[in-house]
Amino acid sequence: MPAGRAIVRLPAMKPSSALPPRRLGALRRRLLAWYAKHKRDLPWRETGNPYRVFVSEFMLQQTQVATVIPRFELFLDRFPTLEALAAADPEAVAAAWSGLGYYRRARNLHASAAVLVREHAGRIPEDPSLLRELPGVGEYTAAALASLIHGAPRAVVDGNVIRVLTRLVALDRPPGRAATDREIRELAQALLEPAAAGDWNQAVMELGATVCLPRHPACDACPWRRECRARAEGTAESFPRRRPPAPVIEIQRALGVFRRGGRVLLRRRRDTRLLEGTWELPGVDAAPEEDALEPLVEELETMTGGPVRIGAELTRFRHSITRRRIAVAAFEAYAHPAPTARGKDRAWVGPATLENYPVSSMTAKVMRALASGRTSR
Q: What's the domain range around 167?
């Protein structure tokens, strides 16, 4: 709270009644004017190309704009049209997705492109109910595609929008519960400027991404500062209200590194819960207090079908995926006879061909350490 500002406690009200109709026009005009002046120059905006919007919406799911920008144009260079993407090999699509994480989105994007070409003549429908039938397209993505491509009057609700709206009306209930989420959706729809739905949705998200920040929001630069109840109370950073955090899971992961002629053996991950279909160094997970080397040897021997010896530790680092905190250690591994590549499940991969394989950021860290020689030895 800024120094010297007294906290003003305003009476609670429902979101549906927090904004009288006479104020909606002013809110809409000010936000759209602010957006026209301050919006970021992003590569999927202002092109009039539905395909670019389509790809960007899949990439932006659970991923920050700064991470998407350098991958977006590279992906479009490789798959310049919806038809090119639909006809592409799934492995090529996954490889081009490397670095963006959540690889299920790449499979859904590819599958959705195929559906659009096969069933919609390569057009992206306006009807959100048809969009919801596409793999990986939920309520948010359907509303985004319908409004950004066709101008359909559908409000989007993502994390940025939730933060802006809960602060605007000082919603004193945490999102994530059905009734609260319904209230937020109703408020977003009530605020929407139907004559400029695409710009409106981008404006609210832009406000959350650049001004109404989670920490230290720039309230004085906000076009809604006069109406914002959280700002009036001096409590903006306490919204949205938070549910108790899920417990952090501590894991150690031991990896085996088989090497041959500058290449290492990778295998395809089959765990449907996380990073399915990516390529990784073979390894095992263990609790922090367990000795992971014995189960690592067992895993590697099961994979190779022969005896395996573990050598020196090559690299060690900390890594996080969602609420998992992982202590990663990679060890030299030896087998006789040497393991072989096997169809689409195992491959010997070197620095020159790594870009052809979708790998997680954890695997990429190990590969970079091995390629640079910066190991623990």
A: 15-238
